[in-house]
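So, could you explain the following?
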Amino acid sequence: MIDDISPSVRAELTPTGTLRVGINYGNFLLVTSYSEGAEPRGPAPDLARELGRRVDAPVEFVAFDTAGKLADAVKTGAWDVAFLGAEPQRAGEIAFTAAYLEIPATYLVPAGSPIRTIADVDREGVRIAVAEKSAYELYLSRNIKRATLMRTPGIEGSLKLFLAEKLEVLSGLKPSLLMDVEKIPGARLLDGQFTAVQQAIGTPKPREGAAGFLRRFVEDVKASGFVAGAIARNGVKGVSVAPPTPAT
């Protein structure tokens, strides 16, 4: 169990008296069920409720349909903590914990594609459909040098663009692509992964006490089995508990 929370840290986490938790319901691996007026379900909401219990504050969910909108909302102070991928492009304004959960990201190619390996993707003339401002889009933006990224709002948008424009590659989280490949005759997933999205908890950058508390919280819920239990309880496939962060 992590140490008791101090009044100053509680004030940073709950400046309104409520723990306002930003979630991305467009990521079905983290939020398995969401509808207006109903309590969200999934590993991220489960961790948020556990965090609220430890902070001894009511939880209010602030929902977004994409990770990009969730990350951008830090500028407006819409949330106190958020569950999203930890990427360098976001770290200027958001203080992240270590990952609590990892999701592999890979590529899908259509029937008859000459692309055989992940290394074959970054070539001239290859167009990659990708959900804009997703954690894996941020990774690809840093690393793709020759292929062209075709950005669209949301995961469904990237699939629609891939099909409509007959693109060479669809990028995505592997659990999602495993469902897509069943719907597209002859399509296949490339072996391996180009990255593993590190799902973490973030808080606005100036809140140093809150950031430290959240880092300890994440290590505790990984070590105690709470994250593994949340994954199993919600029936989520294709994700794994992130390894513990080495002590410094």
Observations:
- The domain at 7-101+197-241 is CATH 3.40.190.10 (D-Maltodextrin-Binding Protein; domain 2).
- The chain has a mean pLDDT of 94.
- The radius of gyration is 19 Å.
